[in-house]
Design a protein that fits this description.
five-stranded parallel β-sheet, alpha/beta, 2 domains, 281 residues
């Protein structure tokens, strides 16, 4: 039986990976970061660590995870006064300083993966361990994108591709052929708040426009796969948009049943667009 360790930060994703892997017969052990991971991880075999306990973290992943690792969930910038480092932390100081000094999200994430690989662990992506979380192609819910929505989605995907070299643009909002917003460091939810403010100022009442979301070319998907979930749907509806277009097999759908229930209740389209098709737009 395959075993895997899950290094769990905040959010629902670590739990959903554990559930999916366990359902497939994979042995799971969660190494949960204190102050970040959901207490519900106690449903699975688990070990709590703080960010300074690198030695304990690595030893547990090797022993309980069969040297196989998936990293999932968010981690806030730590308060180094409360890290409580162990011997493994001090032994890894050169690599840790390299992570802190790295510029750009992609550079940092690539170095995180490399750090664990250098420690003898094989790093997997959430999409490889829990492929059932990936968005399919086509309409995921009961509401489909209309023709204008499909054109907006194609424009959004084209903009995302152009922005790839700038380490930006995982999400783009397009309405009636006009780019309304491009995701920056603030994340998707904050970007959608900007869209709502813009539409309020312009007095737009009709629901139109699409959130186009997918991975950037060259993005380190083993640790940074784009996601949507119930909160994404709520934010899209609140921003007055008509739907969400995601790159099929390139975006994870969290809590799929609840996500699509909310989308259907609000006539919000959720559509998976193949990368090859979006490239023609």
């Amino acid at each position: 039986m395959m075993r895997i360790g899950i290094l769990a930060g905040g959010g629902r994703l670590p739990l959903m990976i554990a559930e999916s892997a366990a359902a497939r017969g994979t042995g799971v052990h969660i190494v949960a970061i204190r102050g970040e991971a959901d207490p519900e991880i106690a449903r699975f075999p688990h070990t709590w660590v703080n960010l300074g306990q690198i030695g304990r973290m690595l030893a547990t992943l090797r022993r309980e995870g069969g040297e196989q690792l998936v990293i999932a969930g968010g981690v806030r910038r730590p308060d180094f006064w409360h890290v409580r480092p162990d011997a493994g932390f001090f032994a890894s100081l050169p690599q840790i300083f390299g992570l802190v000094a790295a510029g750009g999200d992609d550079s940092v994430l690539t170095r995180v993966v490399r750090f664990f690989e250098q420690k003898g662990l094989q790093v997997w992506g959430a999409h490889e361990i829990a492929p059932d979380l990936l968005a399919d192609a086509g309409d995921l819910g009961q509401t489909g994108l209309n023709e204008q929505g499909r054109r907006d989605a194609s424009i959004g995907f084209a903009v995302r591709r152009r922005l790839a070299r700038l380490d930006a643009g995982q999400s783009v909002v397009v309405a009636d052929g006009r780019v309304l917003a491009i995701e920056g460091a603030e994340g998707t939810d904050r970007m959608l708040e900007r869209v709502l403010d813009l539409r309020d100022r312009e007095g737009v009442d009709e629901r139109q426009g699409v959130l186009a979301k997918g991975p950037k070319p060259g993005q380190e998907l083993r640790i940074d796969m784009p996601v949507i979930g119930p909160r994404t749907v709520d934010s899209v509806v609140a921003a007055g948009l008509a739907g969400i277009a995601v790159e099929s097999n390139g975006v994870l759908v969290l809590d799929r049943e609840e996500t699509l229930r909310r989308a259907d209740a609000n006539a919000c389209a959720v559509h998976g667009l193949a990368a090859t098709l979006s490239a023609r737009g």
